Amino acid sequence: IAETNPQAGSIRIIFQVIGKTTAALSQLKTSDSLLDITGPLGMPTEVKQYGTVMVVGGGGGIAAIYPIIKALKEAGNRVITILGARTAELVLLQEECRRYSDELIITTDDGSLGKKGLVTEAMEEVIARESVACSWAIGPSIMMKFCTLTAEKHQLPIYVSLNPIMIDGTGMCGGCRVTVDGTMKFACVDGPEFKGNEVNWDEFINRMKQYQEEEAVCFTDRLKEQV
C-alpha cells in the first residue's frame, strides 16, 4: 500500500507480478472487485522529528518506503531520499518522492538515470557531507544488508522492512519468522520494520532466494566490480 486517501476512502497498491495471484491481480479492470482486504497489520513506523534523515528505496521497495518519506517530511524532518534500481524504468514514484524530499538522489546500475552506481555509494556521499540522525532502507534483501553495513560503519541508526513469505498476516502460520537480535520474530506482527544491525541477514537472505535471486546476483556483481 503506497498511498491512502481517507477522504475518498481509497488506497493505492503497487505490486510486482511474480506468481499466480499477482498475475490474476494484474488482470483486474475498473469495476472489478476483491473480496476482502485486511489491515493494517504489524507495527507502524516510528515517525517523529529526528532532524535530518536519510531514506533509501530500491526497486519495488520504493513503493513501500514512499509513505515513510511523506510522513517524515510532514513531521518536520529534513529528508534526503536515495532511490536505486537496475535501470531507469524500475525507479518508481520519482515525482511523488521528490515532492516530499529536501534532496532526491537517484542511482541506477546501468547509468540510465541519475548516477551510475549503488545506493550504498550515495549513502557514503551523504554521510560524508552532513550529519544524519536516522535512516531507513527498503528494497531487495541484499541491498538492505549492505545499507545496514554502511550505516553501521558510521554508527548511524537504520531501520529496514523485512518481507519474508507471509500467509495469514496474523502470526499464526509462522512462515514469516525471522531472527532479530538472536530471537525469533514474526515479520507480520512484530515488524515489518526492525533495526538493521539486529537482523540475521544470512538466514533471511537464504530464505528469500526463491523470490530475489535476480536482484541479489545483480547487486553482488556490482559490489564485486567496486572491489
TrEMBL record:
What are the Dihydroorotate dehydrogenase electron transfer subunit iron-sulphur cluster binding domain coordinates in residue numbering?
Answer: 163-199
Q: Could you tell me which residue ranges the Oxidoreductase FAD/NAD(P)-binding domain spans?
A: 56-147
* Species annotation: Enterococcus gallinarum
GO process annotations (BP): pyrimidine nucleotide biosynthetic process
| Record's keyword annotation contains Hydrolase | no
- What taxonomic classification does the UniProt entry list for its organism? Bacteria, Bacillati, Bacillota, Bacilli, Lactobacillales
> Which GO molecular function entries does the Swiss-Prot or TrEMBL record give?
2 iron, 2 sulfur cluster binding; flavin adenine dinucleotide binding; metal ion binding; oxidoreductase activity
The annotation note on the cofactor reads:
Binds 1 [2Fe-2S] cluster per subunit. Binds 1 FAD per subunit.
Assigned keywords, A-Z: 2Fe-2S, FAD, Flavoprotein, Iron, Iron-sulfur, Membrane, Metal-binding, Transmembrane, Transmembrane helix
Q: Its domain of life?
A: Bacteria
Q: What is this protein called?
A: Sulfide/dihydroorotate dehydrogenase-like FAD/NAD-binding protein
Asked if Iron is a keyword of the record, the answer is yes
Cofactor(s) required, per the database record:
[2Fe-2S] cluster; FAD
Q: Where does FAD bind?
A: I14, F15, Q16
Q: Which residues cross the membrane?
A: 50-69
Task: Name the positions where [2Fe-2S] cluster binds.
Answer: C173, C176, C188
Q: Which InterPro entries match?
A: Cyt_c3_hydrogenase_gsu, Dihydroorotate_DH_Fe-S-bd, FNR_nucleotide-bd, OxRdtase_FAD/NAD-bd, PyrK_electron_transfer
